[in-house]
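[step 3/7] fold_predict: job queued, chain A
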Amino acid sequence: MPVGYSADGVPIGMMGLAAWGAEETLLSLGRACEHYLENEVGRRRPAGEGCWADVLGGETM
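[step 4/7] structure written:
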């Protein structure tokens, strides 16, 4: 899940793990991270030519 950005503006993600059957814990973690991103950091999309890649077609957009 996305958790913020580096000093250079690169998105940083985090993976959560929980015990078998503890999906509620992971959903709570995801909800907290989403709340933080929306209210504290904000969401950003990279701008400019060449920042998106078509992973199926192999082209840079």
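[step 5/7] annotate
The CA atoms of residues 3 and 13 lie 5 Å apart.
The two ends are 24 Å apart (CA to CA).
exit 0
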